[in-house]
UniProtKB/TrEMBL annotation:
This is Maltokinase. Its EC number is 2.7.1.175. The keyword NAD does not apply. InterPro entries: Aminoglycoside_PTrfase, Kinase-like_dom_sf, Mak_N_cap. Belongs to the aminoglycoside phosphotransferase family. Monomer.
């Protein structure tokens, strides 16, 4: 550990015990957090006032010393009061709409890492949460700790020595090397979580909205690592908190994994190719292969189930219901409703004819922004790596962990090719042909690498793609009206398709 925690040399701690004074601490921070939280990208309750906060736990990861010679680090889990109109965060520049059910309410638990210093250096001014006017941290600067490279490095140190600290528990994968004090930087531009990159060796993803149960972004990469699948970075270490109530499962708080230097994500590579009017077929083909490898490994490592008639009919019914709700909210969908319903009716017919499919654990939110590859011309070079197995962050954990048909992931990626092509300045017949070719190449790559050929199950693929496009319309209408034309062009295409499984 660093000198900051040495009992012999360190100054005495503040007259403050996290466990005993948690209530006083939260009271003094509530007003500051109520103003600060809604401004954070990862805060899901935008668009409505914060009803209130309750404290789930507070842990002094590094003591807040009286003389302030070293910054203190507090770990807080706070619960926001549930409210109406609970929306996913406003999308920034993302390849596909941030997932989640718009309008969903929630009793949300947030993870906060707060630094404490007497005075904040100018470089950290942007990270200030506020200065409590009373309570145990009276007059001190409380700030976003992950923005402070020093505190972010000390957090990394904590992973070297697995064990517990109050309600927190730190684990390390056997044999994983954790570097000493590499420079830390907080990544910008994310949606639902915060990630810190350490030098060029590791990246720590800190989940912001947490709930009881293992997060699939730890569960699936661990399962894949055990299965020997190298398409996904293997977790090096992770931390959890005890469940918020008696009998609830631990909550995954963050995952440390190897950083892949020099990579670009699929969205950057695809839009770069579009800007140069370059083909993306080879890149899409190998991305299809990578997806199939990950699906095959997941199907081998975790339970699967066969979906028969009743489950597939239920799926079709749920899709019909989502379309009904979306059409009520977005009148632009109305002219296409009957055409879109044909996609879901074809899925129900497929089920009635004895069609079936295997459900398994999936990525859950697969799109071009969730795959990385060494940067290079024409879609990059080398192996694709798949990241971010969290699933749709706004869906309940139990839903995200449910086995589903692999075609759901494939539909997500296919929609992403459309998104890339539609945002291209020269979008038009050439960009549409680019998207078609990329989509076909992706499906071929998937089938060649042993996945079930998505084009061989046209009813399933079309139903999932239609469902996704309907979701996108609802999302864009609410959050990014300037992007609405992207899913609407897919809606027109899908609604005009002939009924009997003729996908393209
Ligand atoms: N192992 C990694 N190596 C390099 N960059 C990574 C790695 N994991 C994530 N990133 C970068 O961090 C970004 C956000 O990571 P991601 O897991 O997708 O978080 P979020 O849930 O916020 O989308 C990615 O788009 C990518 O740029
Ligand atoms: Mg992501």
């Amino acid at each position: 550990m660093s000198e900051s925690s040495s009992p012999r040399t360190a100054p005495p701690p503040l007259p403050f015990t996290a466990a005993a004074d948690g209530g006083a601490l939260l009271r003094s921070l509530t007003g500051l957090l109520a103003r600060w939280l809604p401004r954070q990208r990862w805060f899901a309750g935008k668009g409505r006032p914060l009803g209130g906060l309750t404290l789930v736990s507070v842990t002094e990861v590094l003591p807040c010393r009286a003389d302030g010679t070293v910054p203190g680090l507090l770990h807080l889990l706070v619960r926001t009061l549930p409210g109406r109109d609970h929306r996913p965060p406003a999308a920034q520049q993302v390849p596909a709409p941030s997932a989640g059910a718009p309008g969903e309410a929630g009793d949300d638990c947030y993870q906060l890492l707060l630094g404490v210093r007497p005075v904040l250096p100018p470089a950290l001014a942007h990270a200030l949460v506020g200065r409590p006017a009373d309570g145990p941290l009276h007059g001190r600067s409380v700030y976003e700790a992950l923005a402070d490279p020093r505190l972010a490095s000390l957090l990394l140190e904590r992973f070297r020595t697995p064990g517990t600290l109050g309600p927190l528990s730190f684990s390390r994968a056997p044999g994983s090397a954790i570097p000493t004090a590499p420079p830390a930087r907080l990544l910008d531009g994310e949606q639902t979580n915060s990630s810190v990159v350490y030098g060029t060796s590791h990246i720590l993803k800190v989940f912001r909205r947490v709930s009881p149960g293992i997060n699939p972004d730890l569960e699936l990469p661990l399962a894949l690592a055990r299965a020997g699948c190298t398409r996904v970075p293997a977790p090096s270490a992770w931390f959890e908190a005890a469940g918020p109530d008696t009998g609830t499962d631990p909550m995954t708080l963050g995952v440390l994994q190897p950083y892949l230097p020099g990579c670009a994500d699929g969205w950057q590579l695809a839009t770069g190719a579009l800007a140069r009017r370059a083909d993306f077929g080879a890149a899409a083909h190998s991305l299809g292969r990578a997806t199939a490898e990950v699906h095959t490994a997941l199907a081998g490592a975790l339970p699967t189930q066969v979906l028969h008639r009743s489950q597939l009919e239920q799926t079709a019914t749920a899709m019909h219901e989502r379309l009904t709700a979306a059409t009520a909210a977005v009148p632009a969908l109305r002219p296409y409703r009957a055409g879109l319903r044909r996609s879901f009716e074809a899925l129900a017919d497929f089920a009635r004819r004895g069609g079936r499919c295997t459900a398994q654990r999936l990525h859950g939110d697969l799109h071009l922004g969730q795959v990385l590859r060494p940067a290079g011309p024409d879609g990059g070079t080398g192996r694709w790596t798949v990241i971010d197995f969290e699933g749709e962050p706004a869906s309940p954990l139990a839903e995200r962990r449910r086995p589903q048909p692999p075609v759901r992931d494939i539909a997500g990626m296919l929609r992403s090719f459309d998104y890339a092509a539609c945002q291209h300045v020269a979008s038009g017949p050439w960009a549409e042909a680019w998207a078609r070719a990329s989509r076909t190449a992706y499906c071929r790559g998937y089938a060649e690498a042993g996945g079930t050929d998505p084009l061989g199950q046209p009813e399933l693929l079309r139903a999932y793609e239609t469902d996704k496009a309907v979701y996108e319309v609802l999302y864009e209408a609410r959050h990014r009206p300037g992007w609405l034309h992207v899913p609407m062009s897919a809606i027109r295409r899908l609604a005009a398709l002939p009924p009997a499984g003729a996908h393209r």
